[in-house]
Amino acid sequence: MTNVYEIHPKVPKASETEKITINLGCVDLGQIDLLVQEGFYSNRTDLIRTAIRNQLTAHADVVRQTIARKSLVLGLQHYSRADLEALQETNQKLQIQVLGLATIDADVSPELALATIDSLVVLGALHATPAVKSALAGRIR
Predict the structure, then answer these.
(1) Which of the residues 16, 31, 66, 76 could staple to 12 if both were Cys, CB 3.0 to 4.6 A apart?
(2) 131 vs 10, more confident
(3) Is 14 exposed, middle or buried (0-12, 13-18, 19+ CB in 10 A)?
(4) Alpha helices, DSSP H only, in 1-141?
């Protein structure tokens, strides 16, 4: 059995990133385009990622303190059907708290998820089937 509490720290590959949408004013967008045109950044995305990383670095102490205070798992947390079935056999339930990526295998049924996952807090991304996400909707905080 895979240890369900095992942390898999890894840097996501481009195919494992999440897409976000932002709205910018025309002046901000123009300034971004100017910096790209002048060669400071390779493209808009490069500038935006750099700006986000700089802000995360600036607030790194707050992030670390909050992770510790809220007992969040940092990185990748994966749950297989076998992991959840083992918990079900011992009548245990999970309180999942992840900052990063939480994944629940595609072969996990909504019923098994409901029987073994008491609460779910994911700051980042949750990869699970639509049926499992729907079943857990009332437990996602």
Answers:
(1) 16
(2) 131
(3) exposed
(4) 26-37, 44-58, 60-70, 81-89, 110-116, 130-136
